[in-house]
Amino acid sequence: MIPENPNDSDFIKNIDSLKPDLFILASYGYILKKDFLSIAPMGGINVHPSLLPKYRGAAPIQRCLMNGDEKTGLTIFFMDEKIDHGEIFFQEEIVIDENDNYGSLSACLTEKARSVIESVLESVINKTCLRRNQEENNKSLAPKIKKEELYIDWQQPARVIHNLVRALAPKPGARTYFRDQEIKILRTSINMQNARPGEIIKINKCMAIGTGRGVLIIERLKPSNRMEMSGWDFINGIRLQQGEVLV
């Protein structure tokens, strides 16, 4: 059973009664305090989907995609009382494919963690793991995605919006409005033609939207209360008027 607060004294007593040797955490939203971490003689380890100390926090995968990074990685470290701060003893770099989104990159990093966790645990148990401090000069943060960040600003360049769509797909989805109805944009590509920001145009039987620089091809979207569909199917069904825009 997952408690509301793992640092609650009653929960700590329950865990202590189990006499654990080691804790393993991944994608857990609480900072464990010293009273909790001191229960296990071998300490606690955390599996984190970034190349720490880059992207400390709740949304490392989304943030690296938003920033258009070309690589990320998996870090496993001994926890202390600070956020994603402890000594690293395993780290491996992963190349981000240009077509990766949050879903596919999460799956890739999860599979990497699954493939190495047994050998990583053996190194901890056998005391053969090599620990090193994180380089604080290279740290960056990955705070939780705020609701207002889900909404597309069509004044931004196509590349920036494309990376936002990747970071939020398949869930929760980058959002925009058309005729006062919310639409989730799920997959896009970039075209360097020009159109007024937000304007809906047609390019080679594709739905495209003008941005601050270039246009964004809308490959997949999901209108409110409707099934996911292609951008082309969407504009064929709405009787598009010339000059209509997404906002």
UniProtKB/TrEMBL annotation:
<dbReference type="InterPro" id="IPR005794">
    <property type="entry name" value="Fmt"/>
</dbReference>
<keyword id="KW-0808">Transferase</keyword>
<dbReference type="InterPro" id="IPR044135">
    <property type="entry name" value="Met-tRNA-FMT_C"/>
</dbReference>
<feature type="domain" description="Formyl transferase N-terminal">
    <location>
        <begin position="7"/>
        <end position="120"/>
    </location>
</feature>
<dbReference type="Pfam" id="PF00551">
    <property type="entry name" value="Formyl_trans_N"/>
</dbReference>
<dbReference type="Pfam" id="PF02911">
    <property type="entry name" value="Formyl_trans_C"/>
</dbReference>
<dbReference type="InterPro" id="IPR005793">
    <property type="entry name" value="Formyl_trans_C"/>
</dbReference>
<dbReference type="InterPro" id="IPR041711">
    <property type="entry name" value="Met-tRNA-FMT_N"/>
</dbReference>
<protein>
    <recommendedName>
        <fullName>methionyl-tRNA formyltransferase</fullName>
        <ecNumber>2.1.2.9</ecNumber>
    </recommendedName>
</protein>
<comment type="similarity">
    <text>Belongs to the Fmt family.</text>
</comment>
<feature type="domain" description="Formyl transferase C-terminal">
    <location>
        <begin position="144"/>
        <end position="238"/>
    </location>
</feature>
<dbReference type="GO" id="GO:0005829">
    <property type="term" value="C:cytosol"/>
</dbReference>
<dbReference type="InterPro" id="IPR036477">
    <property type="entry name" value="Formyl_transf_N_sf"/>
</dbReference>
<dbReference type="InterPro" id="IPR011034">
    <property type="entry name" value="Formyl_transferase-like_C_sf"/>
</dbReference>
<dbReference type="GO" id="GO:0004479">
    <property type="term" value="F:methionyl-tRNA formyltransferase activity"/>
</dbReference>
<dbReference type="InterPro" id="IPR002376">
    <property type="entry name" value="Formyl_transf_N"/>
</dbReference>
<keyword id="KW-0648">Protein biosynthesis</keyword>
